[in-house]
Amino acid sequence: VIRLGAGLGGLGFSLLGLGHPHATPLVGWPKPGEAKVVLADRSQGLLLVLDRDLIPKWIWMVPPPTHLAPAQRGMIWVVHSPAGPERHRSLVLVDLRAGQASHSWNLPEAPLDLHTDGRGRGWILGGGPGKFSLRGYEEGNPIPSIHDLPLGVTACWLREGRLLFQVEDSLGWVRLETLGGGLPLRAEGDFPLGQLEVLDLVLAGDGILLLGIEAHTMDRPRRVVQRRLWGEEPSWVQGVGAKAERLVLRGDLAESLEASEAWVVHSRSRQVELLPEPGGTGYMIATGDSGGIQALGDLDGRLLLATSTCLRLFSRDGQLLVTQGGFDQLVALSVI
Fold this sequence. Notes:
Strand content: over 45%
Mean pLDDT: 85
Order of helices and strands: HEEEEEEEEEEEEEEEEEEEEEEEEEEEEE
Low-confidence stretches: 1-27
Shape: globular
Radius of gyration: 20 Å
Distance between the termini: 22 Å
Structural class: mainly beta
Number of strands: 29
């Protein structure tokens, strides 16, 4: 178990501030393997880098972090946002191996989401329904690329190098790599959603999984996951729990649409449901914590789940493999 907070007096020699050239080895833990997971503890002001078995590799003290997105060459984008009425929000590109910030930008508003594209640029989604905006940041360029989204956009998602957005009953998308220079944002393609109210989505293989509320004329609305090839009608529709709110793809992104599995998060009930491939059998995983789900990801096909104070790793069949505690306020995690 990682013991932080009150235990920093004994472990202070293993924690270095952002900008120090080297990290002191962490004493008392097994030798870590390759870096695989980055955690953000906002209250303690920490970035923690762990291996695939959740053994700490590096710990950096930073201004309060809120969002993470892995970039290229061992770099990661981090949003800092201190608490208080006069917040000074910033976006920083951090070298995880050295704990050094190579570039920093001030942010005009709190971000809704942070993502990266294939060129290593950081993208921040801001605003709200009817006034969403997208800002792109690039190493070595102090001026962001600013793009306003079309009028009438009611929801947006940044997923796997794409911006996806809903306008009335259609879903449009654009590849982030094609954007730059602040030019008007235009959809590369779209397809009708029908009566589906989209809650979340993930890209999978040659298509997309859509989690949403499906309206019925005779019955009460139900929550489903639609499997769609790009621009086509649903090839499969699978029912999920009544409190399903979020999707995380399980395993390899390159799996075909039909073979893909996903973790379905029931945030308010603190449960996670395995969505199997069509025809398979799913089940619920009780997370065993009353603090609510703050962040989650897929680590080599295993479910990695963070509450405010605890990190848990589950196997595909729902077995609890590893638990790490001692955190104050986990707000984000990223699998690198």
